[in-house]
Design goal:
Elements lengths: L1 H17 L34 E5 L12 E2 L4 E4 L2 E5 L6 E4 L2 E15 L2 E11 L9 E8 L10 E9 L14 E8 L5 E7 L17 E2 L6 E7 L4 E5 L2 E6 L10 E9 L14 E11 L1
Parallel strand pairs: 4-7
Antiparallel strand pairs: 1-17, 2-7, 3-4, 5-6, 6-7, 6-17, 7-16, 8-13, 8-17, 9-10, 9-16, 10-11, 11-12, 13-14, 14-15
């Protein structure tokens, strides 16, 4: 399992290098211009008071809102003959009929990506240097490609990565990563949250502590939620608690960016001849509250 986490860690690092020429805002946590109720129904906080909307995208336009999202480019997912390269193309990143659509596709002519050729293209977008937040409620409603059974090959994620404008003196995984929902087509009835921090160095995945298997069937919309406080991270699927972590680890005491990714899998979840390609992840909306 460690290898697939490493793939994502390297991916963000490469993204940062590719974006070295992008001007960085002076503020560490820029705010979108939203009203408290723009996320819809006002929700009550567990400890009292109400959540206040800080970021929302309902994907109602005809193209990706580049004031909120930045495509991540030039890194690969998958492995071997099943390598895919992230690209910024309307064939892979599209907004239509009220949903964001991130796709992985086979290309007619292989493309060069990270030191090798790739026969597939994939897609990922993030709020890199556009929005980040420390603590709050983070939620998305999304659907991943149905497979009709446990068929390996596809990997999707709604996840978060530390804002790189906040200095860190430790490396990943101690630096942190919050995977609200990882979807693997080999597990067609589950979503897998994973919290990366120092616990990774003491045995890796520990169900009930840093990971879990949550009921969430592919091919239908599910709602994924993170409720994050200074002491606790609670991950829910369709309103039901799936993973609660009370570590209060330093990895989770800083602002994070949002990321959506449609990838090809690795290891036991690597591409097979039965994997449905092209494959598309649909995101109905994403909302953040403070």
């Amino acid at each position: 399992m460690a290898m697939r986490w490493l793939v994502k860690a390297v991916a963000i690092s490469v993204t940062a290098l590719c974006l070295a020429g992008v001007p960085s805002p002076s503020a560490a946590t820029p705010r979108q211009t939203v009203a408290p109720g723009d996320c819809g129904t006002i929700l009550s906080k567990p400890g009292g008071g109400s959540w206040v909307c800080t970021f929302v995208d309902n994907f109602t336009g005809r193209s990706l809102d580049r004031t909120k999202w930045l495509p991540q480019l030039y890194y690969d997912t998958g492995t071997g003959a099943g390598r895919a390269c992230n690209v910024d193309s309307p064939d892979n990143i599209k907004v239509a009929s009220g949903t964001l659509r991130l796709s992985v596709r086979k290309v007619d002519t292989p493309i060069y990506c990270q030191g090798g050729m790739a026969d597939y293209t994939s897609s990922s977008i993030s709020t890199f240097h556009l929005f980040s937040q420390q603590y709050g409620r983070f939620e998305a409603r999304m659907k991943v490609q149905g497979t009709g059974g446990p068929i390996p090959g596809l990997q999707e994620a709604f996840w978060m990565w530390p804002d790189d404008r906040v200095p860190s003196d430790v490396e990943w995984p101690a630096a942190g990563e919050i995977d609200i929902a990882e979807l693997y087509s080999q597990y067609n009835r589950y979503a897998v949250p994973f919290l990366h921090y120092t616990a990774d160095n003491n045995g890796g995945p520990k169900p009930g502590l840093n990971t879990a298997y949550c009921a969430a069937s592919r091919g239908r919309f599910n709602r994924y939620t993170l409720i994050w406080t200074p002491s606790t991270l609670t991950i829910q699927v369709n309103g039901k608690n799936c993973l609660v972590n009370n570590s209060g680890d330093p990895a989770f005491q800083k602002p994070y960016i949002l990321v959506f990714s449609q990838m090809l899998g690795v290891g036991a979840n690597a591409l097979t001849p039965q994997t449905p390609i092209p494959a598309t992840m649909h995101v109905d909306w994403v909302k953040v509250w403070r």
